[in-house]
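HUMAN: Can I see a protein plus its fold?

ASSISTANT:
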Amino acid sequence: LFRSEAASGCDAVLVSVSPPIMQARTAEEREASYRQVLVESCRSAAAACDQVIFLSSISVYGDGRQEAGKLLTEESPRAVDSTEPSTIYYSQAEDATLSIPGGRVLRLPDIYGHPRDIDFTARVALAHEHMGGSVSFAAEGRLHRIHVDDVAEAVIFAVSHQLTGVYNCVPDVVASPTNSEVFDRLADESGQPRLEFRGELATPIKQVSSARLRAAGFSFAHPDDPIH
């Protein structure tokens, strides 16, 4: 938890936390860890500093079916009736951040590109090794993703331009493919069995739009990297 004295003199507090993937494989595991990790972190940050940036998730939209249009924007309703812990607690953490005038939320998709990260083909192998080839997300969900360098630049942009409120931060120049389109192809190309998609973890089946962030002047350096 943050303390006011630790935040003294800071331009802003960045809340960038997420439970480890091996502790978030089931709804029960996510329920046990997400509230403390996400909500309490944002509450303590907002109490300690008047400028807070929370790296949230597009999982607040659930599968996005509550939006009548083709795109999910910041004005689209969150999946408030969801029982999924990720959707519930990311939403509550956003509310805690936005409880102060200097709160700003960047809604992120899957992050890739860190030097210690594994590529998507390796993720197929990881799912077979540790999850029996069965994953919690849905086949028709879109694989929205963002390069880690674009995340860093978006944070700097939000601070330097004094943005407040909610911004989707998802490369959207090219429509994101579905999970099955990507992971079936990668499994076939690498000679691995295809994954089973259980559909328990609802993620957007509609394209997430970052028009608001782009209109503020931000541009993505990695708008459409190949998926391998």
